[in-house]
Amino acid sequence: MKKPICVVFFHRKPRGQNFSVEILFEQIRKNLPSYIKPIISTASHTSNGFWKRFYMAAEAAFRQKLGDINHITGDVNFIGLFFKKKKTILTILDVGFMNHPNQIARWFLRLFWIILPVKRAAVITTISQATKDELLKHVTCDPNKIKVVYVPVSEKFTKAPYMAFNKDCPVLLQIGTKANKNVAGLIEAVRGINCHLDIVGGLSEELHNKLKEYGIKHSLSSQISEDQILTKYQQCDIVTFMSTYEGFGMPIVEANIIGKPVVTSNILSMPEVAGNAAHLVDPFDTEDMKNGILKVIADDTYRKQLIENGFENAKKFAVEKIVKDYCGVYQEILNGASQSMINF
Predict the structure, then answer these.
(1) Do 82 and 65 contact (CB within 8 A), yes or no?
(2) What are the structural domains, with CATH classification, of the chain?
(3) Within 196-299, where are the H helices?
(4) d(CA 172, CA 198)
(5) DSSP-assigned letter for residue 284
(6) What does the pLDDT look like over 196-245, one tens digit per residue?
(7) Distance (Å, whole) CA 141 – CA 91
């Protein structure tokens, strides 16, 4: 029987309905082997302003004595500044914040969200190879210190009952409406296509008016439960996910598991996550996006092949595999093996 390991999972305080990181690691904790004992440490403040962030870092430093390993789960990388390096793992979800338009803000974010946290961690994990590659553009360290551990999909997502594809007016499901989700590009791409856009997330008045102007059939929903999202996947015909930036791209895998064809972007993490289980398009080329959607609608053989490929692709993201990868990292930290990799 293995010696018990106590891992403290350090979480941000979520804002509004944004619980994606918490759901991800709750899924991982539920499947950890019995010898790993998880403790959850949630920050008492949201990440906002210097003094709140300083308090969060001090609070986290005090709580690190609760376990054998500190695991910073993302978004609040800076809280590891006072951690013991040899017992700390930092998960970086993406570095999209480095696209901030303000140069001073980018300097601040690079220092406190990348450079210093990376130096204060024994091991870094990223949720895709693309994120690892992006990270290494902003920090100098041994690439072997950074390990790719993918994101598991909720166990609620399983193959959906068969539903005939609606070629006359397919339902296109779009999860997310932040700027990087490229909903504006999607609206332009489906202009003239007889379809129904089912959009999950808040939409600006400008985009809402554009949908009406173009006569695009659509429905909007926000702040819905995981079960409701699952139902939307089951009832759609195509999942569109043509983002301009993603650290991973969970809707791709969720669609794969359920058995829906995907049209996604050919940049950053999305080709890595999708493999051969999605039609890839240039998210900055409206015509390419439109042609991709039309091909999936028109070509029955191609569409069915994407769905079959999706079932196989989804196996890479099984929770059991992800948990095994994290357990390997925890054991490595305990063994001190990661120290030989560190090179600043």
Answers:
(1) no
(2) 5-152+319-341 (3.40.50.2000), 171-316 (3.40.50.2000)
(3) 205-214, 226-235, 250-258, 269-274, 286-298
(4) 6
(5) T
(6) 999 999 888 999 999 999 999 999 998 888 889 899 999 999 999 999 99
(7) 15
